Amino acid sequence: MSQELHPTADDGSLTVRRDGPILRLTLDRPSRRNALSHPMIDAFVETLTEAATDDSLRAILIRGVGDHFCAGADWVATNEASQRPRTGDLVRRIPHAAHRVIELLHSIQLPVVCAVRGWAVGLGCNLALAADFTVAASDALFWEPFLARGFSLDSGSSWLLPRLIGLTRAKQMLLLGEQVGASEAADWGLIYRAVSPADLDETAEELVGRLASGPTVAIGLAKQAIHYGQHATLSQSMTQELFNLELSCRTGDFKEGLAAFRERRAPEFRGR
Protein backbone atom coordinates (compact mmCIF):
# COMPACT_ATOMS: atom_id res chain seq x y z
CA MET A 1 0.00 0.00 0.00
CA SER A 2 1.13 3.52 -0.68
CA GLN A 3 2.19 5.80 2.11
CA GLU A 4 -0.23 8.60 1.19
CA LEU A 5 -3.26 8.74 -1.10
CA HIS A 6 -4.67 11.78 -2.88
CA PRO A 7 -2.89 14.48 -0.85
CA THR A 8 -3.14 18.16 -1.74
CA ALA A 9 -2.25 21.24 0.29
CA ASP A 10 -5.91 22.27 0.73
CA ASP A 11 -7.66 18.92 0.94
CA GLY A 12 -5.49 17.19 3.54
CA SER A 13 -4.71 13.51 3.22
CA LEU A 14 -5.25 10.07 4.62
CA THR A 15 -1.85 8.72 5.58
CA VAL A 16 -1.64 4.94 5.21
CA ARG A 17 1.16 2.94 6.82
CA ARG A 18 1.73 -0.78 7.09
CA ASP A 19 3.31 -1.81 10.39
CA GLY A 20 3.64 -5.58 10.10
CA PRO A 21 0.09 -6.95 10.38
CA ILE A 22 -1.36 -3.61 11.53
CA LEU A 23 -2.74 -1.06 9.07
CA ARG A 24 -2.41 2.47 10.47
CA LEU A 25 -4.72 5.12 9.01
CA THR A 26 -4.16 8.75 10.04
CA LEU A 27 -6.45 11.67 9.20
CA ASP A 28 -4.03 14.47 8.34
CA ARG A 29 -5.75 17.84 8.05
CA PRO A 30 -5.17 19.46 11.44
CA SER A 31 -5.87 22.99 10.18
CA ARG A 32 -9.55 21.92 9.75
CA ARG A 33 -9.69 19.60 12.77
CA ASN A 34 -9.24 16.75 10.29
CA ALA A 35 -12.54 17.45 8.54
CA LEU A 36 -12.84 14.93 5.71
CA SER A 37 -12.51 16.34 2.20
CA HIS A 38 -13.75 14.45 -0.85
CA PRO A 39 -10.25 13.16 -1.66
CA MET A 40 -9.77 11.95 1.92
CA ILE A 41 -13.09 10.07 1.84
CA ASP A 42 -12.22 8.56 -1.56
CA ALA A 43 -8.88 7.45 -0.12
CA PHE A 44 -10.64 5.88 2.85
CA VAL A 45 -12.90 3.84 0.56
CA GLU A 46 -9.98 2.77 -1.62
CA THR A 47 -7.80 1.79 1.33
CA LEU A 48 -10.45 -0.16 3.23
CA THR A 49 -11.57 -1.96 0.07
CA GLU A 50 -7.99 -3.07 -0.52
CA ALA A 51 -7.49 -4.01 3.13
CA ALA A 52 -10.58 -6.22 3.13
CA THR A 53 -8.88 -8.70 0.79
CA ASP A 54 -5.35 -8.46 2.20
CA ASP A 55 -4.71 -11.72 4.07
CA SER A 56 -1.52 -10.37 5.65
CA LEU A 57 -3.40 -7.75 7.71
CA ARG A 58 -4.74 -8.54 11.16
CA ALA A 59 -5.95 -5.22 12.63
CA ILE A 60 -6.59 -1.56 11.77
CA LEU A 61 -5.85 1.54 13.87
CA ILE A 62 -7.39 4.93 13.01
CA ARG A 63 -6.37 8.24 14.58
CA GLY A 64 -6.12 11.93 13.72
CA VAL A 65 -3.17 14.32 13.57
CA GLY A 66 -3.09 17.04 16.21
CA ASP A 67 -5.60 17.87 18.92
CA HIS A 68 -8.74 16.47 17.28
CA PHE A 69 -9.90 13.21 15.76
CA CYS A 70 -12.29 14.43 13.07
CA ALA A 71 -14.70 17.35 12.67
CA GLY A 72 -16.83 15.42 10.16
CA ALA A 73 -17.31 15.90 6.45
CA ASP A 74 -16.19 19.26 5.09
CA TRP A 75 -19.64 20.64 4.31
CA VAL A 76 -18.36 24.22 4.20
CA ALA A 77 -16.11 23.51 1.22
CA THR A 78 -18.79 21.41 -0.45
CA ASN A 79 -21.37 24.18 -0.27
CA GLU A 80 -19.34 27.21 -1.29
CA ALA A 81 -21.37 29.26 -3.73
CA SER A 82 -18.79 28.95 -6.49
CA GLN A 83 -18.99 25.14 -6.47
CA ARG A 84 -22.43 24.34 -5.08
CA PRO A 85 -23.36 20.79 -6.17
CA ARG A 86 -26.25 20.29 -8.53
CA THR A 87 -29.57 18.83 -7.36
CA GLY A 88 -29.33 15.11 -6.65
CA ASP A 89 -25.58 15.17 -6.03
CA LEU A 90 -25.87 13.76 -2.50
CA VAL A 91 -28.08 10.86 -3.55
CA ARG A 92 -25.69 9.90 -6.34
CA ARG A 93 -22.40 10.41 -4.53
CA ILE A 94 -22.69 9.70 -0.79
CA PRO A 95 -23.57 5.98 -1.05
CA HIS A 96 -20.16 5.53 -2.72
CA ALA A 97 -18.32 7.92 -0.40
CA ALA A 98 -19.08 8.65 3.28
CA HIS A 99 -21.69 5.91 3.60
CA ARG A 100 -19.36 3.41 1.99
CA VAL A 101 -16.65 4.21 4.56
CA ILE A 102 -19.04 3.38 7.41
CA GLU A 103 -20.20 0.19 5.70
CA LEU A 104 -16.63 -0.96 5.17
CA LEU A 105 -15.58 -0.25 8.76
CA HIS A 106 -18.63 -2.10 10.02
CA SER A 107 -18.32 -5.14 7.76
CA ILE A 108 -14.58 -5.62 7.24
CA GLN A 109 -13.43 -8.88 8.83
CA LEU A 110 -10.55 -7.21 10.62
CA PRO A 111 -10.81 -5.67 14.10
CA VAL A 112 -10.82 -1.86 13.93
CA VAL A 113 -9.62 0.42 16.74
CA CYS A 114 -10.10 4.21 16.85
CA ALA A 115 -8.07 6.52 19.09
CA VAL A 116 -9.98 9.76 19.65
CA ARG A 117 -8.68 13.10 20.90
CA GLY A 118 -10.68 16.31 21.01
CA TRP A 119 -13.70 16.50 18.73
CA ALA A 120 -15.38 13.55 17.02
CA VAL A 121 -18.20 15.24 15.11
CA GLY A 122 -20.79 14.02 12.59
CA LEU A 123 -19.12 11.66 10.16
CA GLY A 124 -16.08 11.73 12.46
CA CYS A 125 -18.24 10.60 15.36
CA ASN A 126 -19.73 7.82 13.27
CA LEU A 127 -16.30 6.63 12.19
CA ALA A 128 -15.55 6.09 15.86
CA LEU A 129 -18.89 4.37 16.47
CA ALA A 130 -18.49 2.03 13.48
CA ALA A 131 -15.12 0.83 14.79
CA ASP A 132 -15.06 -2.29 16.93
CA PHE A 133 -13.27 -0.52 19.78
CA THR A 134 -12.93 3.22 20.33
CA VAL A 135 -10.60 4.51 23.01
CA ALA A 136 -10.91 8.22 23.78
CA ALA A 137 -9.03 10.78 25.83
CA SER A 138 -11.11 11.77 28.85
CA ASP A 139 -11.54 15.31 27.49
CA ALA A 140 -12.77 14.15 24.06
CA LEU A 141 -16.27 15.10 22.87
CA PHE A 142 -18.71 13.19 20.67
CA TRP A 143 -21.29 15.25 18.81
CA GLU A 144 -23.93 14.59 16.13
CA PRO A 145 -24.74 18.15 14.98
CA PHE A 146 -26.85 17.32 11.92
CA LEU A 147 -30.14 18.89 13.06
CA ALA A 148 -28.30 21.85 14.57
CA ARG A 149 -27.05 22.55 11.04
CA GLY A 150 -30.51 22.23 9.53
CA PHE A 151 -30.26 18.90 7.76
CA SER A 152 -31.26 15.34 8.60
CA LEU A 153 -29.16 12.45 9.88
CA ASP A 154 -26.27 11.01 7.92
CA SER A 155 -23.52 8.36 7.76
CA GLY A 156 -25.31 5.67 9.75
CA SER A 157 -26.05 7.66 12.90
CA SER A 158 -29.72 6.60 12.95
CA TRP A 159 -28.63 2.94 12.88
CA LEU A 160 -25.51 3.02 15.04
CA LEU A 161 -26.62 5.07 18.04
CA PRO A 162 -29.88 3.28 18.97
CA ARG A 163 -28.08 -0.06 18.88
CA LEU A 164 -25.20 1.17 21.01
CA ILE A 165 -26.99 3.28 23.62
CA GLY A 166 -30.75 2.80 23.20
CA LEU A 167 -33.45 5.02 21.76
CA THR A 168 -33.69 7.64 24.51
CA ARG A 169 -29.98 8.44 24.57
CA ALA A 170 -29.81 8.25 20.78
CA LYS A 171 -32.55 10.88 20.57
CA GLN A 172 -30.70 12.97 23.14
CA MET A 173 -27.70 13.07 20.83
CA LEU A 174 -29.49 13.16 17.49
CA LEU A 175 -32.63 15.28 18.09
CA LEU A 176 -31.33 17.56 20.83
CA GLY A 177 -27.79 17.66 19.47
CA GLU A 178 -26.26 17.22 22.91
CA GLN A 179 -22.50 16.70 23.13
CA VAL A 180 -21.28 13.68 25.09
CA GLY A 181 -17.95 13.60 26.90
CA ALA A 182 -15.70 10.57 26.70
CA SER A 183 -16.29 9.36 30.26
CA GLU A 184 -20.05 9.51 29.83
CA ALA A 185 -19.74 7.87 26.40
CA ALA A 186 -17.86 4.98 27.98
CA ASP A 187 -20.44 4.66 30.77
CA TRP A 188 -23.22 4.54 28.16
CA GLY A 189 -21.45 1.91 26.05
CA LEU A 190 -21.03 4.34 23.17
CA ILE A 191 -17.27 3.71 23.18
CA TYR A 192 -15.01 1.07 24.66
CA ARG A 193 -12.98 3.13 27.12
CA ALA A 194 -12.05 6.65 28.25
CA VAL A 195 -8.50 7.21 29.49
CA SER A 196 -6.33 10.15 30.44
CA PRO A 197 -4.97 12.06 27.41
CA ALA A 198 -1.44 11.00 28.35
CA ASP A 199 -2.44 7.33 28.26
CA LEU A 200 -4.43 7.36 25.00
CA ASP A 201 -1.70 6.30 22.58
CA GLU A 202 -0.35 3.56 24.84
CA THR A 203 -3.85 2.18 25.48
CA ALA A 204 -4.72 2.16 21.78
CA GLU A 205 -1.43 0.50 20.87
CA GLU A 206 -1.88 -2.19 23.52
CA LEU A 207 -5.39 -2.91 22.30
CA VAL A 208 -4.59 -3.05 18.58
CA GLY A 209 -1.54 -5.20 19.33
CA ARG A 210 -3.67 -7.61 21.33
CA LEU A 211 -6.20 -7.87 18.49
CA ALA A 212 -3.47 -8.26 15.86
CA SER A 213 -2.05 -11.24 17.75
CA GLY A 214 -5.41 -13.00 17.97
CA PRO A 215 -7.03 -15.66 15.73
CA THR A 216 -7.79 -13.29 12.84
CA VAL A 217 -10.18 -15.52 10.90
CA ALA A 218 -12.20 -16.39 14.01
CA ILE A 219 -12.29 -12.71 15.08
CA GLY A 220 -13.63 -11.73 11.65
CA LEU A 221 -16.28 -14.46 11.73
CA ALA A 222 -17.28 -13.51 15.28
CA LYS A 223 -17.62 -9.87 14.22
CA GLN A 224 -19.80 -10.92 11.29
CA ALA A 225 -21.98 -13.12 13.53
CA ILE A 226 -22.50 -10.34 16.09
CA HIS A 227 -23.65 -7.94 13.38
CA TYR A 228 -25.85 -10.58 11.72
CA GLY A 229 -27.52 -11.26 15.06
CA GLN A 230 -28.69 -7.65 15.32
CA HIS A 231 -31.41 -8.33 12.73
CA ALA A 232 -31.91 -12.10 13.05
CA THR A 233 -33.80 -14.50 15.30
CA LEU A 234 -32.03 -16.69 17.86
CA SER A 235 -32.42 -19.72 15.60
CA GLN A 236 -31.07 -17.85 12.58
CA SER A 237 -28.12 -16.55 14.61
CA MET A 238 -27.21 -20.03 15.85
CA THR A 239 -27.39 -21.38 12.30
CA GLN A 240 -25.01 -18.64 11.19
CA GLU A 241 -22.73 -19.48 14.11
CA LEU A 242 -22.62 -23.10 12.93
CA PHE A 243 -21.41 -22.14 9.46
CA ASN A 244 -18.83 -19.78 10.95
CA LEU A 245 -17.71 -22.50 13.36
CA GLU A 246 -17.22 -24.90 10.46
CA LEU A 247 -14.94 -22.36 8.78
CA SER A 248 -12.95 -21.40 11.87
CA CYS A 249 -12.34 -25.07 12.77
CA ARG A 250 -10.43 -25.45 9.49
CA THR A 251 -7.85 -22.78 10.33
CA GLY A 252 -4.33 -23.23 11.58
CA ASP A 253 -5.17 -20.96 14.51
CA PHE A 254 -7.85 -23.41 15.65
CA LYS A 255 -5.30 -26.21 15.72
CA GLU A 256 -2.85 -23.97 17.58
CA GLY A 257 -5.52 -23.04 20.11
CA LEU A 258 -6.23 -26.69 20.86
CA ALA A 259 -2.53 -27.53 21.09
CA ALA A 260 -1.92 -24.62 23.46
CA PHE A 261 -4.83 -25.74 25.64
CA ARG A 262 -3.50 -29.30 25.84
CA GLU A 263 0.03 -28.09 26.56
CA ARG A 264 -1.14 -25.48 29.08
CA ARG A 265 0.59 -22.57 27.36
CA ALA A 266 -0.43 -19.32 25.68
CA PRO A 267 -1.36 -19.79 22.00
CA GLU A 268 0.71 -18.21 19.25
CA PHE A 269 -1.84 -17.38 16.59
CA ARG A 270 -0.68 -16.53 13.07
CA GLY A 271 -3.92 -15.21 11.64
CA ARG A 272 -4.49 -18.15 9.31
From TrEMBL:
InterPro entries: ClpP/crotonase-like_dom_sf, Enoyl-CoA_hydra/iso, Enoyl-CoA_hydra_C
Family of this protein: Belongs to the enoyl-CoA hydratase/isomerase family.
Single Gene Ontology MF annotation: catalytic activity
Designated name of the protein: Enoyl-CoA hydratase
CDD domains per UniProt: crotonase-like (cd06558)
